[in-house]
Amino acid sequence: MKVLIVEDDIDIRELISFFMEKEGYEVLEAGDGMTGLKLAKTYHPHIIILDLMLPNLDGKSLAQMIKKSEEKYGNPKIIMLTAKTDIEDVLSGLEVGADDYMKKPFDPRELVLRVKKLLNRETKISTKKYMFKNITIDTDKHLILEDQNEIPMSKKEYDLLLLLIKNKGLVLTRDKILDKVWQSNYYTGDRTVDMYISKIRDKVKSISKDIKTIKGVGYKLEEKIL
To answer: In what residue span(s) does the Response regulatory domain sit (predicted)?
Structure first.
């Protein structure tokens, strides 16, 4: 699961990152609000640890923008960090959509527990969906929708497109794709990956140009950042 840390104090950011990575989370970091917003749009983190006072775009405004267009940012949970002790600041953060808050200074172990609690609750109550532009993958129903129209796909095509969307913006080598999708102990061959990428491009034409070939390496599902 992805955790986005938006904190301008590099020492605090690195401390949180250390504890999150120790728990096995994939960590993204931003030192200002605008960068945090761009990362949220590109990578769809499951949870955002968000400082209230940030350069370029403050935490309250960032949370408000994300909660107004949740699907655009992957419906993340938000934990607000604040050095302010005024209850009004805490309440204003919760009012714009923060799911929890912690006052600085805090024990990073408690923050880890709060992250786990929010993510566990989300897993229990929600249907897992992955989205990219007009494409939605509903993993509970094993469906791929393009503008709400179902696209029939084989299991390997489904698994490959899901892998690309889960890792949008990241380069996936052919070896990694073979390992994740085919999980084979025998040599399947690079051409197998290329053939299935071609099939997906043909079936999902609206995002075919977003599936970029990285020559000599693999593929990347590319999304333009704000």
So the answer is: 2-119
Domain co-membership, 162 together with 120: no
Instruction: Look up residue 177 and give its amino acid.
Output: I
Q: What is the pLDDT of residue 175?
A: 87
CB atoms inside a 10 Å sphere around CB 37? 23
- At 186, the pLDDT band (50, 70, 90 cuts) reads very low
The tokens for 141 are 């129903």
Residues 148 and 108 in one domain: no
Domain span including residue 105: 2-125
In b/e form, how buried is each residue of 149-182, taking b as 16+ CB within 10 angstroms? eebebeeebbbbbbbbbbbbeeebebebbbeebb
Say how far apart CA 151 and CA 24 lie, in whole Å.
33
Last residue of a domain, one of 61, 95, 125: 125
pLDDT at 123 over 80: no
For the domain that residue 59 is a member of, what is the CATH number?
3.40.50.2300
Domain identity same for 117 and 8: yes
Q: Give the count of beta carbons closer than 10 Å to the beta carbon of residue 49.
A: 28
Residue-wise pLDDT tens digits, 43-79: 999 999 999 889 999 998 999 899 888 778 888 999 9
124-183 pLDDT per residue, tens: 445 578 889 999 998 878 899 999 899 999 888 999 999 999 898 889 998 889 888 877
CATH code assigned at 196: 1.10.10.10
On whether the CB atoms of residues 167 and 180 are closer than 8 A, the answer is: no
β-strand partners of 80: 50, 101
